[in-house]
Design goal:
Blueprint lengths: L2 H45 L1 H13 L1
């Protein structure tokens, strides 16, 4: 994905957050950001499972 596409997606995401903030107050934005963080975490696990597996192995060794 090119830098222009990433910038455009970032701008659209920012505009969406702004619209949600105005329409449904700040609590809705916190919910959206929470779901976005969860989605990012799941995406990272699928993209780089070796990091997640290493973390689980370190937790198991304790």
């Amino acid at each position: 994905m090119s830098m222009t596409n990433k910038a455009t997606l970032g701008a659209l995401a920012g505009a969406l957050v702004a619209v949600i903030w105005v329409a449904w107050d700040g609590v809705a934005v916190l919910v959206v950001l929470g779901f976005a963080a969860i989605g990012w975490l799941i995406g990272m696990i699928f993209q780089r499972p070796d990091i997640f597996i290493g973390l689980l192995q370190r937790l198991q060794d304790r």
